[in-house]
Specification:
The complex is a heterodimer of chains A (498) and B (222).
Chain A: H1 2-27, H2 35-76, H3 80-96, H4 99-111, H5 118-141, H6 146-163, H7 166-179, H8 184-196, H9 202-208, H10 212-231, H11 252-284, H12 288-329, H13 334-349, H14 352-364, H15 371-394, H16 400-415, H17 420-433, H18 436-452, H19 458-462, H20 465-491
Helix pairs in contact in A: 1-2, 1-13, 2-8, 2-11, 2-12, 3-5, 3-11, 4-5, 4-7, 5-10, 6-10, 6-16, 7-10, 7-20, 10-17, 11-12, 12-18, 13-15, 13-18, 14-15, 14-17, 15-18, 15-20, 16-20, 17-20
Chain B: H1 3-6, E1 10-18, H2 22-31, E2 37-45, H3 49-54, E3 58-69, H4 70-84, E4 93-99, E5 124-132, H5 136-145, E6 152-157, E7 165-167, E8 170-172, E9 175-184, H6 185-199, E10 208-213, E11 216-218
Antiparallel strand pairs in B: 1-3, 1-4, 2-3, 2-6, 4-11, 5-9, 5-10, 6-9, 7-8
Helix pairs in contact in B: 5-6
Classes of the chains: A mainly alpha (498), B alpha+beta (222).
Chain lengths: 498, 222
Amino acid sequence: MNVLVTKLKEVLYAVLPITAIVLILNFTLTPLDDLTLIIRFVIGAISIIIGLSIFLFGVDIGITPIGQLMGKTIAKSNKIWIVMIAGLLLGFFISIAEPDLHILAGQVDFVTSGLISKTSIVMIVSIGIGALIAIGLARIVYNIPLYRLLTVLYFIILVLALFTSREFLAISFDASGATTGALTVPFILALALGVSSLKKDSKASEKDSFGLVAIASTGAIISVMIMNIISKSDKITGSIEPVENGPTSIMGPFLHEIPIIAQEIIMALLPILLIFLVFQKIYFKMSKKTVKKIIIGLLFTFIGLVFFLVGVNAGFMDVGRSIGHSIASLDNKAYVVIVAFVLGVVTILAEPAVHVLTHQIEDVTSGYVRRKVVMFSLCVGVGFAVALSMLRILIPELQLWHYLLPGYIIAIGMTYLVPKLFVGIAFDSGGVASGPMTATFILAFVQGAAEAIEGANVLIDGFGMIAMVALTPLITLQIVGFIFKLKSKKEGLIKDVQ
Amino acid sequence: MFSNSEITEYEQVCIIVDFGKGSKVMQTAKKYGVSGGTILLGKGTINNRLLELLGINDIKKEIIFLVSDNKTINNVIEQLEDKFKFTKPNHGIAFTTSVGRVFGARNYMKGHIKEERGEENSMYQAITVIVEKGNAELVIDAATEAGSKGGTIINARGSGIHETSKLFSMDIEPEKEMVLILSAKDSTDAIVTSIRQKLKIDEPGNGIIFIQDVNKTYGLFK
């Protein structure tokens, strides 16, 4: 029973901070008038705790083994066209099924008044991600250094960005966050690990286990930008509809969300399951016992994610919005920035993919890079990201690219200095940090604040927040890498981590 | 030329604890005179029907190897036992094996001490099985059938005579799994036979088994 207790403890540490902060805010700065909202929040938190625990087990015994096996099988084919085609197909199918991508595509469809249809965005982004996953896999097998590939990719993004309209700049960077959701991230991570763990050189194997998520997310950015340049649809016309006052019953929203989310998750898991079954028939040929275990794992993943997302959507979102609204209405605007920072810090703890990534880091480095270190720097990074986004809403002159351009220049510049293991970890964290928790709770908080601030456009200012969350960890984690490098030099005996 | 190492008797301690405790064990060991050690990550097994049904039947472990002269080792293990309570169920296990020679550890230049403390006589043996990745579970199953209480799986890499290869620009070494099983002397034969039959170890390329005598054990239950 030890395992269950340990896991539950881990999840409690992840979810309790955010619950506590929100409750403290409720009793001090921003009393929420509506008692049902608070009760729903607490029920949501419990549902998230249960869901996250089950989900993490599911990933361990379901998603990760599938991804690793797939990676190995592909690499062992020893034919580049198989690697490329398999990468393309896998990337395409898992991202086309990602619920977050559909939400984003729906929003874009809406704001461009249907000029760019939802299906075309989903298709194009999925192709982009597929192509980049293929390139990412090829990078691992041909030993191309990650920092060089990232430099090239971000240079392409920079050039494209010059031709992209301001609004779409935000949307395209958000797309990178949206496509790396709670399901795709563990899968892509495992895929990379599967290929790289074959390597004889254990240091290369260690550092090449990371970076594929980062490469995949640039695929989304590039494809949205290209789409914007080709279609010349730079007018954002729509505006977000006023938030309807939700039903007053406590359980209503939960019951409403369950079927919707269950259906989304089934859609997202289906391609992974099908691909697995096909591979199992043709290549893996594993024992019945192993297959059964993996299927149970997928089932856990499903149940866990449903609990988690229902908790977030029905319990957390409205609270986030109403906190954002009432804090931004306070006279002293410093509060809203500080609260944004704190919420950013605690929210990221509860992000499912973050746990998957940090565990993988610990496994791959045999405990050399501890979870807590990565977690801590992620928290600080995301805290800054949310606070900076809030600042951007308060000061209309501040443009998104004022953050993104210097941010990415610093991030790319640092890749040449820090240990290469941390380059992969940092860039993967960027994609990992922008998961379902951020995309719902923090986004709702930011939008709530934007509603209360004069001159802020809820929709336009809402876009771009995820882009920030995906950017700051790149810098904070590379700083950690730099510290590791300095420390190991001092001690002299330990070899450089490169 | 090996005189430095041959003065005293050396022992290797292998300590298996839950994930996260490894560094603490190491710190304690260093405090009591061991000059260093190596930590590996492994997977342990547990016997629990419910968890087995749910598919959550492995648990992360850390394995710590320490080598020192037997006086230091005795002292260290006592201290560790005090601190980590190996004698209680699920608090980890430790066992010692004899080591022939030690190289590269310069601090071990102590006087000739030979003192036998037979707290627990060698009733146990350590069985190490190295197989292709994915087969470790089968090894554990085979061992459990023959009366073993469990085992620890360590991911490893290695290659036999024909096995190194190249895929694209990557040098590949096949992945292996190493299974560490502690067994009472009288059931060792049964366990080894069971593994040999199930995994066809005697055919070339299917893995290897070796058995070491264990001097002392801590935290094992019958």
